[in-house]
Batch of 3 targets.
Target 1
Amino acid sequence: MDPLENFTFRVKWDNQYIAGVSRVGALRRVTEDVQYRQGGGDTPVVRDAPGRTRYEPITLERGITSDRAFEQWANLVLDLQAGQGAANYRKDVILDVFNEAGQKVLSYMIRRCWVSDYQALPVLDANANVIAVEQITLENEGWERDAAVVWPPN
């Protein structure tokens, strides 16, 4: 039996779990391939080496709720652009993953996130059979797994 079959997870920032997050985009990093020539003469060799690493943006989605956490964080970037000095527009985000027994089996700290894209409402269509979803896209400066969280838990 797969303990992560249902992908039970929770998202936290400002020391509070955020209500209703139903989808988290992939945690993905990409390291550039830098090629260089080595050797001289008639047969130089092309070698590869790792270059800069970038962390892909992460999208969080949830059905619209009365909780305004997504909107409030997205508004901090607007405040910054308006010159109101919102120094706290960057946040560390914690992604906790649980098994079917409700035990935390994975945890990731996503560093220095800020909201680059905010969708308050989807396209509204009275004939569609969908729920209204709000979403944010988080730029980030990296993530790391919490080694203190062991799988399977004791």
Note: Residues 69-81 form the longest helix (13 residues).
Target 2
Amino acid sequence: MAKSYVKFSVAPEIAGKAYELVQVASSTGKVRRGTNEATKAIERGTAKIVIIAENVEPEEIVMHLPDICTEKGIPFVFVPDKKELGKYSGMDVQSAAIAIENPGNGGELLKELLNHIPKKA
């Protein structure tokens, strides 16, 4: 069953691009890992994009993120798995959300991803 916070679904290739962007930004740019750090980056306006896992339990952990992203004008995208999100960000543990503050060498990937996600959720 779909989670209430998932505002739109993305194609597997778009999710793959999001994972790839997280991996590149983690090694060459700056990312904020976890819901609390992502929330801070959104509220401060430093996040370029927020990646949110779809399989977070309980969903209350991340359900505020799409709303504050929309309020602040920060794009966001959903990916299927929190374990994969953590892995691609360079951690051995899962992550419910990642905020990318500086894409590093992933600037082109970020632009491509932004072109494929809905503008209004």
Note: Residues 13 and 19 are 10 Å apart (CA to CA).
Target 3
Amino acid sequence: MTLTMVVTKTDDGFTAEVPTLRGCESWAHDEATVIDKTLDLAAFYLKLDESNFAMDKIRRTGNKTFYKIIFNKK
């Protein structure tokens, strides 16, 4: 299965969200931290271990970067 994560650069840091998981969003000062926090949250919502996730950068548009989260839910 795959989900999309959207990371947005803002004036005071970065926000990240997984739009298909309601409430799965976070904020941090740097991009790596916001991605880690959002992956932790997605793993919690999906009741999976974060080690089951793989990520791939899809594209960058303006101040937004799109990632694909790939996982196998068994």
Note: The mean pLDDT is 94.
